[in-house]
Amino acid sequence: MRYVIAVLATTFSVASPLQASAERPGVTVAFGNTVKALYADGKYQRLWFRADGSWEAVGRRGKRSSGRWSLQDQKVCLRQSRPFPAPFGYCTAFPASGALGVVWTSQDWQGEPIKLTIVKGIERP
User: Fold this and answer.
1) Which residue range(s) make up the domain with 22?
2) Structural domain count of the chain
3) Least CB-packed of 20, 35, 66, 70 within 10 Å?
4) In 10 A of CB 52, how many CB atoms?
């Protein structure tokens, strides 16, 4: 499974998601919106953050996953619980700008380059 959310974070800060979002306002722009990860093959993964610390995603192959998010060392860290608990971690930078349409680059858990953007609303594949 080569999508960002397939195997995700196991390391979290002790701050609650609500405290974390207050400390890092960029994350709050994702609430009620969609974070899209574009892969080199032209396919997207879509991720939806909630203020309660949960997230859901649909991978670029259409598989669903979900779990909990938090912040650690200025990065968003995810822990996958479904479809299976992830055995290792994934954290990535998240822009502090707090603006829809912001684009940034990162890598997925396997080191594959991805381009991320926050788009308005809940965009389903």
Assistant:
1) 17-119
2) 1
3) 66
4) 12
Say how far apart CA 59 and CA 119 lie, in whole Å. Answer: 16
β-pairing, 34-38 vs 44-49, is antiparallel
**pLDDT tens string 6-55:** 333 322 233 344 444 444 457 888 999 999 999 999 999 999 999 999 99
2 within a domain of the structure (yes/no): no
Paired tokens of 57:
């995603």
CATH number of the CATH domain containing 59: 2.40.128
Residues paired with 65 in a beta bridge: 57
User: Is residue 114, in this structure, part of any structural domain at all?
Assistant: yes
Cβ proximity of 98 and 47 under 8 Å: no
Dihedral angle computed from the Cα positions of residues 37, 48, 74 and 26, in that order, rounded to the nearest 10 degrees = 100
* The pLDDT value given to residue 115: 96
pLDDT in tens, 94-120: 887 768 898 999 998 788 999 999 999
Mean pLDDT of 56-75: 91
Q: Is residue 101 part of a domain?
A: yes
CA distances from 122 to 54, 85, 118 (A): 15, 25, 10
